Amino acid sequence: MKFFVDTAEIDAIAELNDLGMVDGVTTNPSLILKSGRDILEVTKEICDLVDGPVSAEVVALKAEDMIAEGRKLAAIADNIAVKVPLTWDGLKTCRVLTDEGHMVNVTLCFSANQALLAAKAGATFISPFIGRLDDINLDGMELIADIRTIYDNYGYETQILAASIRTVNHVTESARIGADVITAPPAVIKALASHPLTDKGLDAFMADWAKTGQKIL
Ligand code: E4P
């Protein structure tokens, strides 16, 4: 499974990238706001740092304007995936940009039918938002499973990019179901390494080691 990191913070991306944990990056207008950076500048820096797809989101609402924005974002680097919302205009934009050879990530997906449309529009990635469904008491993981089944039934090549991941369990479940990619904030990716029994075991080993009076270095 591929790991994308969901942030526009260069330092956080670089730290995970150095470990080989970053297969791509996703950003959105809220993450650009949080970074305090200019979208074109920070996106270029991310593209230079990371080999895999870097999603940069359009902010227009009409297809004609979205297409123009998408082309400008795609010109930043070869590894840009233009992110478009799952609206009818977003789907039109997806078809045009895909036909031009650009990667497209269709975002803000909350239903299996929306995911079906994105696949038919040629999307490279579909981003179902797990956490935001859980927030309103629906089952985000069930949506990932439904999309997996539908895409496999018909052999769609659109990659399922499980998004709005808030917990380590979202990562486990996405992997179990067979999502192609997860995108998660750096803190969630780092939390995957944590286990209370690891901490407890390490404490015990350190205590016993101190009693030996030995040193390795
Ligand atoms: C995905 O591409 C989005 O940027 C992101 O996963 C949204 O997550 P949130 O619902 O935690 O804001």
From TrEMBL:
InterPro entries cross-referenced by the UniProt entry: Aldolase_TIM, TAL/FSA, Transaldolase_3B, Transaldolase_3B/F6P_aldolase, Transaldolase_AS, TSA/FSA_arc/bac
GO molecular function, one term: aldehyde-lyase activity
Record-linked PROSITE patterns: TRANSALDOLASE_1
GO cellular component: cytoplasm
Reactions mediated catalytically: D-sedoheptulose 7-phosphate + D-glyceraldehyde 3-phosphate = D-erythrose 4-phosphate + beta-D-fructose 6-phosphate
Pfam families the record matches: TAL_FSA
Cellular compartments annotated: Cytoplasm
Residues the record marks as active site: K83
Family, similarity comment: Belongs to the transaldolase family. Type 3B subfamily.
Function: Transaldolase is important for the balance of metabolites in the pentose-phosphate pathway.
NCBIfam families assigned: fsa_talC_mipB
Protein name: Probable transaldolase
